């Protein structure tokens, strides 16, 4: 099946999905034309999504009342609560620097996964994965912020995974940006800051090569079976903030990387569009 997938172009894959949805088209016709079995077609349809489709995305702003900014982001069955708090205490190494700071914390609820996870507090320390993800979130958000315009303020973004089905770090980044934007709006309204420090919108999404096919926005099963998986953080203007990529089962070719990069850029355009729709509504 992998050899067949590698021969299929994106246009061919989209056509297969269209034919599969047509009542008059039997699977035998797809097998004859594309050499793809019924199980292969079902795989490609991946929960009624094209290979270049995001999972269903929902952003609920002002989800909590207490934080300066808050949103719940749902990407398929991955749900992340993002809350923003503002403090006047800076890290010691930033004092008297005429700058502010943005940092992030990340965690998963014990039953966000199919089996209960132990709380990291009960172990007495955070895992390496948790530390890596929260640093990624912080770096990503700081990349589009003028820290001099939030002078003497420390903004802390808490990203708590309520339910996990793949892509929790990318959902956290996209949600963190929305929560931060809501926070900045309040700071401007209260005249705590004078100028908007946000340079441009930001979002993140995962991609992967599964059975030789480039896919956008992987769920858990797709991520587990990926030959290559990657996370892309990109701004509205198309500037690259960070790319994380791992060749899990096979090495990634330049062609495969470019196919994932293209999917990521288009997917992030859609996420940013929904971020803006949320703001306008």
Main sheet strand line-up: 1-2-3-5-4
Low-pLDDT regions: none
The overall average pLDDT, rounded, is: 90
- DSSP strand tally: 9
Query: What share of the residues lie within helices?
Result: 25-40%
Summarize the structure.
The chain is of the alpha+beta class and 281 residues long. It has helices at 2-7, 10-21, 27-34, 38-45, 120-123, 128-142, 168-189, 220-224, 254-280; strands at 57-61, 69-75, 78-87, 101-108, 154-163, 202-210, 213-216, 228-235, 240-247.
Your description of this structure?
This protein has 281 residues and is α+β, with helices and mostly antiparallel strands. The protein has 9 helices and 9 strands. The strands form 2 sheets. It has a 5-stranded mixed β-sheet with strand order 1-2-3-5-4. α6 crosses α7.
